[in-house]
Specification:
Number of strands of chain B: 4
Helix content of chain A: 55-70%
Strand order of the largest sheet of chain A: 1-2
Radius of gyration of chain A: 22 Å
Largest interface: A-B, 55 and 51 residues
Number of domains of chain B: 1
Structural class of chain B: mainly alpha
Helix content of chain B: over 70%
Number of helices of chain B: 11
Strand content of chain A: under 5%
Shape of chain A: globular
CATH architecture of chain B: Orthogonal Bundle
Number of domains of chain A: 1
CATH class of chain A: Mainly Alpha
CATH architecture of chain A: Orthogonal Bundle
Radius of gyration of chain B: 20 Å
Oligomer: heterodimer
Distance between the termini of chain A: 32 Å
Order of helices and strands of chain B: HHHHEEEHHHHEHHH
Number of strands of chain A: 4
CATH class of chain B: Mainly Alpha
Shape of chain B: globular
Structural class of chain A: mainly alpha
Largest sheet of chain A: 2 strands, antiparallel
Order of helices and strands of chain A: HHHHHHHEEEEHHHHHHHH
Strand content of chain B: under 5%
Largest sheet of chain B: 2 strands, antiparallel
């Protein structure tokens, strides 16, 4: 079979898989599961209001960031959780997406190419999203192609190097042409607008006043739901099962007729696309990007979310993302009052105490739940039967 | 030519340090098949311990040439204890867990160590006291100073010593046996827990020495110094073929040379487009190129696809 027809068949497979999800609506019956689902939906929809009322507006912002992290973790879950490819440079794709929107959605390009773009290129966010997804996906293939032959830890170090290369370029591409503005980063990025309504200002929808952070929450929720949906459909599809076969035993998978090369590349590309799209959301939400946000520590953090939550299980990964995004913030707000209550004054530097507790939490959780907080059913079975799993 | 020689010298010095740290990674990997991500932080703790002991002793009026070896021994002992503790707490309970679980605990350990160090030693840079009159020597236009000479000589001695331990002693044979096949080694009467503990302690002692070297060479120590160093050393270990001692040494030296030559010549190579700030990019590109051509490192043996 030629390469073209293979790619075509993958695309077809992908489309068919996604469409089948909609078709299941035909024989619909309202069960307890649906009730539970509706209740959860209502709870999530009310979340920003409840958070706002109980904890204050700053926390809604934190929840927004947690949603971004969940999307990232779900994207990485495709690469690490399904296909079993250890990626330590995942944040690079997030960076590609973020810079993609930062460049095309801010006045910055006027600095780099004053002749071409006298006041920058202010592309619509909705135009940039597919562009960023394509670009990030391209970078994913770029990373995947030379690393196809590498085993676990060798792959880890190459992806780590790739992430660092991207970050160093972003840090230094302010000369000879000021493309990324170096360590200062790019600011004044256009806010995202939906159907002509800017999300950067308080809006009234059906008589309900929605502040900017609430609007972004719903936008992120929509994107996260899409990511969950795609992940879910992928997991049960031929592609997903092929990925898991590769994860368990690449040689056996190849001898069963699975095209391991294309499927590994597809895993890299799909994961990277999710990362890229989250990046554009991040840039629009923050209004500012700088290389600092895309350090190796961030890649490691997202990996921790996937592994700690439960690799390969969507709900586990969501739980991991939520916990690890919120835990540092909860600690940030609790270590000072806690010390005040215990000793009467702040004895230990709160910032390092916070990270100390965070590190300890990582260790303790992994010691007691080595397969993650909420492992997938398949993996739990494997763990019970066999001790040497990936 | 002078620049070339100078960059070679700098590369050798930096490479010796990388090699020592890389040995720690590779020994643990060889035996457990695990990336000990916390190893870079052990180097940092080693440097900080040497510095604290040294400052304390110099304050008491101990002559510098006595204080230095004593504080190095203290730091090595401290790091060995630390290495032992890390293995006991974070890795041993997870020996049969999924492969990524110990990776996460390793990251946890390294976050904990970094922040503990920040609490104990603060955020500031600590100056390393000048103990010897650091004489510069001129060789064909390039400069090498005493500390750099000592670093290279010490590194060579330690590596020869380590090779002797691994290849000539009972302990070394036990280590190689455990690396080859844990279960078989256990059946032959090797106490694998003891061997693994000793491996961690050996690696940590090397880390303490490397910590001293780095801080003496740059005259600085900092709670954050372990992160980047650990990363580079891990890269070096992979470059040489992880799990292989000679590979770690070769990888360390090569990475040091690649980095310093890259820093010196990348501007000329790219016609001035990329400056020396891209030296890490250069190093990683070389790494990727090597791994594409030899997927298991320079000296790594071809392992079966599933380890």
């Amino acid at each position: 079979m030629s390469r073209h027809s293979l790619c075509g068949s993958f695309c077809f497979e992908l489309l068919a898989t996604l469409l089948r999800g909609f078709c299941t609506v035909k024989n619909f019956k309202f069960t307890r599961q649906h009730l539970l689902f509706s209740l959860m939906l209502v709870a999530v929809l009310l979340l920003p209001f409840v958070t706002d009322a109980l904890l204050g507006r700053g926390w809604v912002r934190i929840v927004d960031f947690a949603m971004l992290y969940i999307m990232l973790a779900l994207g990485l879950n495709i690469v690490v959780g399904y296909a079993g490819l250890l990626d330590l440079g995942y944040i690079a794709f997030f960076a590609v997406g973020a810079y993609c929107y930062a460049l095309t959605g801010s006045p910055h390009l006027a600095l780099a190419f004053p002749m071409l773009f006298p006041d920058g290129l202010h592309l619509s966010f909705w135009l940039v999203v597919p562009l960023a997804a394509l670009l990030a996906g391209g970078f994913g293939v770029l990373l995947g192609a030379p690393t196809l032959r590498l085993r676990g830890d060798y792959l880890a170090i190459v992806t780590l190097g790739f992430g660092e290369i991207i970050r160093i370029f972003m840090n230094n591409l302010n000369a000879p042409v000021n493309l990324t503005n170096g360590p200062q980063g790019i600011s004044r990025i256009d806010p995202i607008s939906v159907a002509g309504v800017s999300l950067n200002a308080t809006q009234d929808v059906f008589g309900i006043t929605l502040p900017s952070v609430h609007l972004y929450f719903y936008l992120f929720l929509g994107f996260a739901a899409l990511v969950v949906f795609v992940s879910h459909r992928l997991e049960k599809s031929r592609i997903g099962r092929a990925w898991m076969a590769i994860r368990e035993d690449e040689i056996a998978a190849a001898s069963m007729g699975i095209n391991t090369r294309n499927l590994k590349l597809l895993a890299f590309a799909m994961g990277a696309m999710f990362g890229g799209v989250s990046g554009t959301l991040f840039a629009g939400f923050q209004g500012f990007v700088s290389p600092e946000s895309f350090s190796l520590m961030e890649s490691i953090m997202v990996l921790c979310m996937v592994v700690l939550g439960g690799m390969g299980n969507i709900y586990g990964v969501i739980l991991g993302g939520l916990l690890l995004a919120l835990l540092p913030e909860i600690l940030r707000h609790s270590v000072v009052p806690l010390q005040q209550a215990l000793f009467g004054k702040t004895l230990i530097d709160p910032e390092s105490l916070r990270m100390l507790l965070f590190g300890t939490a990582l260790i303790v959780v992994m010691l007691y739940r080595p397969a993650g907080l909420w492992p997938s059913r398949v993996r739990r079975r494997e763990l019970e039967s066999d001790e040497t799993t990936v | 030519m002078e620049i070339f020689l100078q960059q070679i010298i700098n590369g050798l010095v930096q490479g010796s340090v990388y090699a020592l740290v890389a040995l720690g990674y590779t020994m643990v990997y060889g035996i457990l098949g695990l990336i000990n991500f916390a190893h870079g932080e052990v180097v940092m703790v080693g440097a900080m311990l040497v510095l604290s002991a040294l400052t304390a002793m110099l304050g008491l009026g101990v002559p510098p040439l006595l204080a230095l070896p004593v504080s190095l021994l203290l730091a090595m002992a401290g790091c060995m204890l630390l290495g032992y503790g890390i293995e006991r707490v974070a890795y041993r309970p997870l020996r049969h867990a999924p492969r990524l679980a110990p990776l996460i605990t390793a990251i946890g350990v390294s976050i904990v160590l970094q922040n503990l160090a920040m609490m104990i030693w603060g955020r500031e840079y600590h100056a390393f006291p000048q103990l010897i009159n650091n004489q510069p020597h001129h060789i064909g236009g390039a400069i090498i100073n005493d500390i750099q000479i000592i670093i290279v000589i010490m590194a060579v001695m330690i590596m020869t010593g380590l090779m002797a331990v691994v290849h000539r002693t009972r302990l070394g044979r036990a280590m190689r046996a455990v690396a080859e096949n844990q279960h078989a080694a256990q059946l032959m009467g090797v106490d694998i827990n003891r061997v693994i503990s000793i491996t961690f302690m050996l690696g940590s002692a090397l880390a303490a020495i490397a910590g001293l070297m780095v801080s003496a060479n740059y005259g600085l120590a900092h709670y954050y110094m372990g992160f980047m160093l650990g990363l580079k050393a891990f890269t070096a270990a992979v470059l040489g073929g992880i799990g292989n001692l000679r590979g770690a040494m070769l990888g360390g030296l090569l990475l040091g040379l690649i980095e310093s030559l890259g820093a010196g010549y990348i501007g000329d190579l790219t016609g001035g487009f990329l400056g020396s700030q891209y030296q890490d990019v250069f190093a990683f590109f070389v790494l990727i190129a090597v791994l594409v051509l030899r997927p298991s490192g320079l000296l790594g043996e071809r392992l079966a696809e599933r380890a």
